[in-house]
Amino acid sequence: MIEVALSCSPAARQVFEELLQLPPDATLVDAVKASGLAQQFPELDWRHATTPGIWGRAVEWEQALKDGDRIELCRPLKVDPKVARRERFKGQGARGTGLFANRRKGGAAGY
């Protein structure tokens, strides 16, 4: 038997994590079916609504698992992170952002 961890966030501020004992020839699909994900979140279409990964690297659903793998099911992003950063920057202005924005009183510039 191999032990793998399954992690998924079906919605904002909801986390599902489970340790699974599986046979050595198990695939990613086998792991998700063996978990309680479908019972806990019946409305989640995990096969089409999520992208599978192992330790942060995207893989196919038929990927064979190894002992100690961490399976991550990721939802698609709703907002592009670059666009979100540009919008935050517009609201803050140039003076309130950057590496040295919070400088000590009396400190030299750049520190």
Task: Provide the fold topology.
Elements: E1 2-8, E2 16-22, H1 28-34, H2 37-40, H3 46-49, E3 51-54, E4 57-58, E5 70-74, H4 81-92
Parallel strand pairs: 1-5
Antiparallel strand pairs: 1-2, 3-4, 3-5
Question: Would you kindly provide a written description of the structure presented here, covering whatever features stand out?
Answer:
By secondary structure, the chain is of the alpha+beta class. The protein has a domain at 2-74: Ubiquitin-like (UB roll). It has helices at residues 28-34, 37-40, 46-49, 81-92; strands at 2-8, 16-22, 51-54, 57-58, 70-74. The longest helix is centred in the last third of the chain and has 12 residues, at 81-92. It is elongated and about 65 Å long.
Q: Runs with pLDDT <50, length 5+?
A: none
Named at the architecture level, the CATH assignment of the domain at 2-74 is Roll
Q: Averaged pLDDT, please?
A: 84
Protein structure class: alpha+beta
Give the CATH level 1 class of the domain at 2-74.
Answer: Alpha Beta
- Measured between the Cα atoms of the first and last residue, the distance is 54 Å
Question: What's the count of strands?
Answer: 5
Major β-sheet profile = 5 strands, mixed
CATH superfamily of the domain at 2-74: Beta-grasp domain
> What is the succession of H and E elements?
EEHHHEEEH
Helix content: 10-25%
So how many helices? 4
How much β-strand is present in the residues?
15-25%
Radius of gyration over all CA atoms, rounded = 21 Å
CA-based shape: elongated
Write out the strand line-up for the largest beta sheet, numbering strands in chain order: 2-1-5-3-4
CATH topology of the domain at 2-74: Ubiquitin-like (UB roll)
